[in-house]
From TrEMBL:
The keyword Transmembrane helix appears for this protein: yes
Organism lineage: Bacteria, Pseudomonadati, Bacteroidota, Bacteroidia, Bacteroidales
Pfam families with a match to the protein in the record: DUF4134
InterPro entries reported for this sequence: DUF4134
Signal peptide extent: 1-20
Transmembrane segments: 44-63, 75-97
Protein name, per record: Uncharacterized protein DUF4134
Top-level lineage group: Bacteria
Keywords: Membrane, Signal, Transmembrane, Transmembrane helix
């Protein structure tokens, strides 16, 4: 009786694994398409954040320049560097993953 039960269990175990074949490739393809679909909106979002950071930096630098602060060039360089970093990082990430 136990041999029949073991045989039935073996047939049942192999039968369920046969139905699961082939779904892995489709799942990986779907995941890849979903991830690559997020890069274009994310890149545009990072560009928009860079524009806002640039505007805020411009106002900060102008206020320092108007008040006669001698540290204006360092502030301008740091804000400009932040904007350039955002733009370059978004472009490199997009080109690296797509």
């Amino acid at each position: 009786m136990s041999k029949k039960l073991l045989f039935l269990f073996a047939i049942l175990a192999t039968g369920t694994s046969l139905f699961a074949q082939g779904n892995g490739i489709q799942g990986i393809t779907d995941a890849t398409n979903m991830v690559t679909g997020y890069f274009d909106p994310a890149t545009k979002l990072i560009y928009a954040i860079g524009a806002v950071v640039g505007l805020i930096g411009g106002v900060k630098v102008y206020s320092k320049f108007s008040s006669g602060d001698p540290d204006t060039s360092k502030t301008a360089a740091s804000w400009f560097g932040a904007c350039i970093f955002l733009i370059v990082a978004a472009t490199i990430l997009r080109s690296f993953f797509l």
